[in-house]
Write a sequence for this structure.
């Protein structure tokens, strides 16, 4: 009988050890599940570690509420107080979402990328306007800039920053420069003589033409292929290109074309409190060159809204010229050639975006820099365009309340029905690319 019960004992021992084994397994599994997420978290931390005492949360970086200012948007006073190196001033934004902006790594002069394109401008603006303007055009493929500066743009704290940017040449308006320009070929030509010795816009037109003449020589010496003249309230919009690139645009131009015209689109502001037009304005009035004839004339009255012309200011666009022998300026908007009639074409999709009167303060800024009397006769000495003349008179004679009401009636698009109608007709259009470029910075 005892032998019959002997095999049962091992079974009993095995049964008693099962709970112990199960308990050990559960303990090991719990330990494993505890260590695994901690290990993964540590591994993720190591991957994101950037040094310097912390790392940037990508969720916070791309959050819509986390809007970082574009480098250079600070007030001029902040730049004046700063003793930091130029590179630190330019890269003051804490965002790393645009890392190639660091130290302005845009120097294409030694590269094989082509064509090489330069912009010349005459400006008295501050860094808050010039830096975003430079940055945007660097991004879309401009190689070099010739900045003819005076006023605020020529002040020490502004010019120090500008001179420290690769691909930017700063030219100051000195007595030596004026004497040199007074001996130039353009100065002694009859087509420019009618603008001499007149204030404000006429004086600016003469300076721009003389500066463009000098910029042609500088562009040739720098090995540029194309040259454009733009103001710092204008942005090139290379519409129709796959890469949103002015280099791509001009590389496709046939070799027998000497000049291309960018029809201008005019900013159509929807608020009277715009502070930074490049990042706040997305609606533009299209040039008539980009509209069907019936659409343009059929909606002309609603598009002008009682203003003297279809556009508030100019309507003939801006042009780019191929660097070649005998090239000369033909006013601020065109180029010409002393030895031939240039072959010129207009672009079908690309445009120059003109942010004119985009800020309410533009009314008073024009008033403050011109010494004309606010009469219909005297303003003709200062301004070429009817809207500029009317705006100057209003800014010089009206109360603050009257001036704001006039600005809303003539500049701000507040009627939603008319705005929607003209958007559907194609007279008004939305362009967000510049806004995206600046917000990403």
């Amino acid at each position: 009988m005892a032998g019959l019960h002997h095999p049962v004992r091992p079974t009993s021992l095995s049964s008693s050890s099962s709970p112990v084994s199960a308990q050990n397994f559960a303990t090991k599994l719990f330990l494993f599940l505890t260590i695994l997420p901690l290990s993964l978290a540590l591994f993720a931390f190591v991957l994101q570690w950037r040094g310097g005492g912390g790392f940037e949360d990508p969720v916070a970086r791309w959050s819509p509420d986390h809007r970082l200012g574009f480098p250079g948007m600070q007030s001029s006073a902040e730049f004046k107080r700063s003793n930091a190196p130029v590179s630190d001033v330019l890269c003051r934004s804490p965002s790393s979402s645009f890392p190639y902006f660091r130290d302005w790594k845009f120097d294409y002069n030694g590269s094989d990328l082509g064509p090489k394109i330069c912009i010349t401008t005459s400006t008295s603006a501050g860094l808050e306007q010039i830096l975003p303007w430079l940055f945007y055009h660097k991004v879309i493929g401009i190689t070099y800039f010739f900045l003819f500066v005076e006023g605020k743009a020529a002040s020490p704290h502004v010019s120090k920053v500008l001179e420290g940017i690769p691909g930017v040449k700063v030219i100051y308006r000195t007595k030596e420069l004026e004497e040199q320009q007074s001996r130039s070929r353009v100065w002694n030509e009859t087509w420019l003589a009618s603008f001499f010795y007149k204030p404000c816009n006429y004086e600016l037109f003469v300076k721009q033409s003389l500066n463009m003449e000098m910029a042609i020589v500088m562009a040739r010496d720098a090995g540029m292929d194309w040259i454009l003249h733009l103001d710092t309230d204008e942005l090139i919009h290379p519409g129709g290109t796959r890469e949103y690139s002015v280099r791509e645009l001009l590389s496709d131009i046939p070799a027998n074309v000497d000049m291309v015209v960018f029809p201008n689109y005019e900013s159509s502001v929807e608020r009277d409190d715009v502070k930074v037009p490049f990042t706040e304005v997305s609606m533009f009035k299209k040039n008539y060159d980009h509209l069907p004839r019936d659409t343009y004339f059929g909606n002309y009255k609603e598009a002008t809204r009682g203003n003297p012309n279809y556009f508030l200011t100019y309507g003939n666009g801006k042009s780019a010229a191929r660097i070649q022998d005998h090239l000369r300026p033909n006013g601020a908007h065109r180029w010409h050639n002393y030895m031939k009639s240039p072959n010129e074409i207009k672009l079908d999709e690309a445009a120059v975006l003109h942010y004119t009167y985009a800020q309410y303060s533009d009314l008073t800024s024009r008033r403050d820099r011109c010494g004309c009397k606010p009469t219909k006769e005297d303003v003709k000495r200062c301004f070429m365009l009817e809207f500029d003349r009317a705006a100057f008179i209003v800014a010089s004679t009206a109360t603050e309340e009257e001036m704001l009401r006039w600005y809303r009636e003539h500049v701000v698009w507040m009627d939603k029905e008319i705005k929607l109608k003209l958007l559907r007709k194609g007279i008004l259009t939305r362009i967000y690319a510049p806004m995206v470029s600046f917000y990403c910075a």
Notes: The first helix runs from residue 2 to 5. The mean pLDDT is 84. The two ends are 92 Å apart (CA to CA).
